[in-house]
TrEMBL record:
<dbReference type="InterPro" id="IPR036250">
    <property type="entry name" value="AcylCo_DH-like_C"/>
</dbReference>
<keyword id="KW-0274">FAD</keyword>
<feature type="domain" description="Acyl-CoA dehydrogenase/oxidase C-terminal">
    <location>
        <begin position="294"/>
        <end position="453"/>
    </location>
</feature>
<dbReference type="InterPro" id="IPR006091">
    <property type="entry name" value="Acyl-CoA_Oxase/DH_mid-dom"/>
</dbReference>
<protein>
    <recommendedName>
        <fullName>Acyl-CoA dehydrogenase</fullName>
    </recommendedName>
</protein>
<dbReference type="InterPro" id="IPR041504">
    <property type="entry name" value="AidB_N"/>
</dbReference>
<dbReference type="InterPro" id="IPR052904">
    <property type="entry name" value="Acyl-CoA_dehydrogenase-like"/>
</dbReference>
<dbReference type="Pfam" id="PF18158">
    <property type="entry name" value="AidB_N"/>
</dbReference>
<feature type="domain" description="Acyl-CoA oxidase/dehydrogenase middle">
    <location>
        <begin position="169"/>
        <end position="283"/>
    </location>
</feature>
<comment type="similarity">
    <text>Belongs to the acyl-CoA dehydrogenase family.</text>
</comment>
<dbReference type="Pfam" id="PF02770">
    <property type="entry name" value="Acyl-CoA_dh_M"/>
</dbReference>
<dbReference type="InterPro" id="IPR009100">
    <property type="entry name" value="AcylCoA_DH/oxidase_NM_dom_sf"/>
</dbReference>
<dbReference type="Pfam" id="PF00441">
    <property type="entry name" value="Acyl-CoA_dh_1"/>
</dbReference>
<dbReference type="InterPro" id="IPR009075">
    <property type="entry name" value="AcylCo_DH/oxidase_C"/>
</dbReference>
<keyword id="KW-0560">Oxidoreductase</keyword>
<feature type="domain" description="Adaptive response protein AidB N-terminal">
    <location>
        <begin position="5"/>
        <end position="159"/>
    </location>
</feature>
<keyword id="KW-0285">Flavoprotein</keyword>
Amino acid sequence: EEGFQPTPYVEGNPFTADTVLPSLLKRLVPPSVLSEVDEDLQRFGDVVLTKLRPLSARAEPARLVQYNQWGQRVDDLQTSEGWRGLKAALQEEGMIGIFYERKYKEYSRVYGFAKILLAVGDTQVMFCPLSMTDGCSRVLELMGTPELKRDVIPRLTSRDPNIAFTAGQWMTERPGGSDVSQTETIATPIPNITSPYGPTYTINGFKWFSSATDSDVALALARTGPVSAGSRGLSLFLIPLRRPLFRGPEESAPPALTNNIRIHRLKNKIGTKVLPTAELELNGSEAYLIGPLNQGVKSITPVLNITRMYSAISSVGYIRKALTIATAYSKARTVSSGEQLLKDNPLHVSVLAKVNLLYRALTHFTFSAVALLGKVECGVASEEEELRLRMLTPAAKAFAAHYSSIAMEECMAALGGMGYMEETGIGRLIDDGLVEKVWEGTVSVLSLDIVRATSKRGVVEAFLKWANGVLSACPPPLQTKLSSPISVIRESLPLISAAYKAPVSPLATRPALFLF
Ligand code: MFK
Ligand code: FAD
């Protein structure tokens, strides 16, 4: 009880404490939109502190009850109150809604992703199911029947948690997740039945990873062509997890999955423990074909590209949270015989500055892709911008995932022993953030995707034109002319390392643009 008492640190409102978002938003959003968005983000910063954080603290890993007391198979997935509360709170905040209401037109993506950046460290990976819900909405917007657009999109994008749906994505199977060509799940057409939602099939197979197991629908790949056709024999299906999909308002969703889906087991993961990732057996599940037959991989790519954007922003959001804690601690903890706060110690500040620089670089980099996504979805992007987005998406996701854990470990150590304690939450952030290197494409698979993207005519030219334009606007020491995407990477490395040594300044953040 006696002796030195450590001073608790205060994290503060994540928006007003943020060192990057205000200037980033000024750069990307016109003043008329900025004033409204700015006000909402300040309010939302308080919501993160007062509502989302307490809910997150009450979120527990889900429990799976496979059999009831009569020996019947029930597969009752019991999620925690905190998890359900987080989902509802984020739906009410318009996470998904903002992106389809498009109140701020092409700037809606920047606005919504700014909210994600602020919330991600305090929401227990809830943006995983929400990202797939977003991706599913986009696929249905692009390829759904008029009835799907009428009935399902409004649910997926709803701000009312009582009627809102979430969606999962079932691609990965035991023979391969990066490479889906050996998919074993089979789709069989039901003769003479066509639902208004599309040609109706039954699905049989085993899905090895299902993270949004508490969702209402899932987009899944299943084989409709010969095994010899590999991934070109797969089609995309919308699968309801329960039937009927729509119930009266008085009936809440039954916990068990009722579309002939069994939950084999819940995954035992390093992190993302609250997220109910499961293995699923599908034994004659009803499903609707989405998009053209045997073009399932291509049809699901809008989901991949949207969830990859969420992944990139999540990685950056984890750094934001860890850095905020480390910065707050530096204002509370003294060193040098108690004479000096850490924030005034040059050696310590240089450590924080390094992470701060990385955070700035990655935020500007990832949001440049987010801004392009908004433009493409609103039909106002040029062809060159569309091609650039195609390349930037896997690059942003891979870079952010790679650097995030490095940055978070620095932040953890910046609190000394306190950083290694569970209560700071940095440990959970690191464990959760690690998965960004794996799901939605590993770093190697994404680098192959960049190669795939650049093999399309015009992509490299569009990219170099843009990169050289950015470079020519930089101060002389950073000016250089690039001739290939490889040279962008090669030339950027010395610039980035030079920037690391420099004090944090607007100039030092510029090399972010050279990352890609
Ligand atoms: C909070 C964080 C948020 C994130 C959370 C989400 C939860 C996590 C859930 C998951 O992890 S879900 C599973 C995600 N799985 C993957 O990401 C799989 C990784 N593997 C790949 O991405 C492979 O590249 C792929 C499976 C797509 C390769 O399949 P294929 O069949 O060998 O691809 P192919 O034949 O090269 O391409 C088929 C078509 O799609 C081509 O078009 P064309 O038919 O016109 O030639 C390609 O150009 C096109 N394509 C492929 N990837 C594309 C794309 N188009 C646009 N964007 C892409 N990314
Ligand atoms: P593999 O593809 O076997 O990869 C193994 C290694 O091989 C990796 O290092 C990879 O980089 C490397 N590799 C693969 N191909 C190549 C290549 N051509 N060249 C060089 N190296 C290569 N999936 C879903 O569909 N839905 C979900 O909801 C979902 N949730 C998930 C939740 C969690 C927590 C995790 C960890 C995964 C989830 N996944 C989900 C699965 C995830 O998308 C896959 O694990 C991922 O795509 C990798 O596939 P894999 O596990 O089969 O690994």
